[in-house]
């Protein structure tokens, strides 16, 4: 899934080093690891990423399809490697 993150420009903000106060993928993976395998929670996080803009109404997040958001959140919970 790193190819999707690369294609969508996610590494521009979430790479190493991350941009300003943005968490890196490593930081996100550490924080979200507790949700690994929890399909409902992952789906809810993906919807928030794509739709609810709890992360600040970020244009790049808004441009993800629901399917892409789910793939990315799943990838992050699995360690973002």
Overall structural domain count: 1
Q: Report the helical percentage.
A: 55-70%
* Average residue pLDDT: 90
Give the terminus-to-terminus CA distance: 8 Å
**Could you say what the CATH architecture is?**
Orthogonal Bundle
By secondary-structure content and strand pairing, the structural class works out as mainly alpha
Number of helices: 6
**Any idea of the CATH topology?**
Cytochrome Bc1 Complex, Chain D, domain 2
Parts with pLDDT < 50 across at least 5 consecutive residues: none
> Cα-atom Rg, whole angstroms?
11 Å
Largest sheet geometry: none
Write up this protein.
By secondary structure, the chain is mostly helical. It is globular, with a radius of gyration of 11 Å. Helix 4 packs across helix 6. The model has no long low-confidence stretch (mean pLDDT 90). 59% of the residues lie in helices and 0% in strands.
Quickly describe the structure.
This protein has 81 residues and is mainly alpha-helical. It is built from 6 helices and no strands.
Write the layout of secondary structure elements.
Layout: H1 2-7, H2 11-14, H3 25-32, H4 39-52, H5 59-62, H6 66-77
Helix pairs in contact: 4-6
Keywords for this structure?
Cytochrome Bc1 Complex, Chain D, domain 2; 59% helix; globular; 81 residues; 0% strand; mainly alpha
